[in-house]
């Protein structure tokens, strides 16, 4: 199995998550300002951290370990004021990126589960 650096999984997961959110928001409005506001509200660290918290009971041991390792990645200096939130969001992105590369079925299951928590 191809293995990437955790930072790369987080990078990929960030893009996958934003695309998922954008696909949902374009069905809501054609107004660019509204699209941007809705999207940024769903891709920010605090929202991702909250989602990870809701998913914790669903995670397998391997996924919990990936999240733990993701939370321990170094944090950019500019993000240190919200360190806890940023770490949780990074763990969320690591998982999304890992599922995207290794288990699309699991990714779809998780995204469907998350959709019940999204309020647009």
Strand and helix layout:
Elements: H1 6-25, H2 32-43, H3 45-55, H4 61-71, H5 83-102, H6 104-115
Helix pairs in contact: 1-2, 1-5, 3-5, 4-5, 5-6
Keywords: Coiled coil, Endonuclease, Hydrolase, Nuclease
Domain RNase III: 9-103
Coiled coil: 45-72
Describe this entry's structure for a reader:
This protein has 120 residues and is mainly alpha-helical. It has six helices and no strands. Helix 1 packs across helix 5. The longest helix is centred in the first third of the chain and has 20 residues. The termini are far apart. The mean pLDDT is 90.
Shape: globular
* Sequence stretches where pLDDT stays below 50 over 5 or more residues: none
Q: H/E element string?
A: HHHHHH
Distance between the termini: 37 Å
pLDDT average, as an integer?
Answer: 90
Annotation, overall tally of beta strands: 0
Percent in strands: under 5%
Helical percentage: over 70%
The profile of the biggest β sheet is: none
Number of helices in the DSSP assignment: 6
Provide the structure class. Answer: mainly alpha
* Radius of gyration, taken over Cα atoms and rounded to an integer in Å: 14 Å
Protein name: Mini-ribonuclease 3
Organism: Candidatus Scatousia excrementipullorum
Keywords: Coiled coil, Endonuclease, Hydrolase, Nuclease
Coiled coil: 45-72
Summarize the structure.
The chain is an all-alpha fold and 120 residues long. 72% of the residues lie in helices and 0% in strands.
Give the tags.
120 residues
């Amino acid at each position: 199995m191809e293995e990437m650096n955790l930072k790369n999984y987080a990078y990929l997961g960030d893009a996958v998550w934003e695309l998922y959110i954008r696909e949902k928001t374009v069905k809501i409005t054609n107004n660019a300002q509204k699209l941007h506001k809705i999207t940024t509200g769903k891709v920010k660290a605090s929202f991702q951290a909250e989602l990870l918290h809701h998913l914790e009971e669903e995670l397998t041991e391997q996924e919990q370990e990936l999240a733990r390792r993701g939370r321990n990645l170094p944090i950019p200096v500019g993000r240190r004021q919200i360190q806890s939130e940023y770490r949780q969001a990074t763990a969320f992105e690591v998982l999304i990126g890992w599922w995207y590369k290794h288990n699309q079925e699991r990714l779809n299951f998780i995204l469907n589960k998350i959709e019940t928590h999204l309020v647009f």
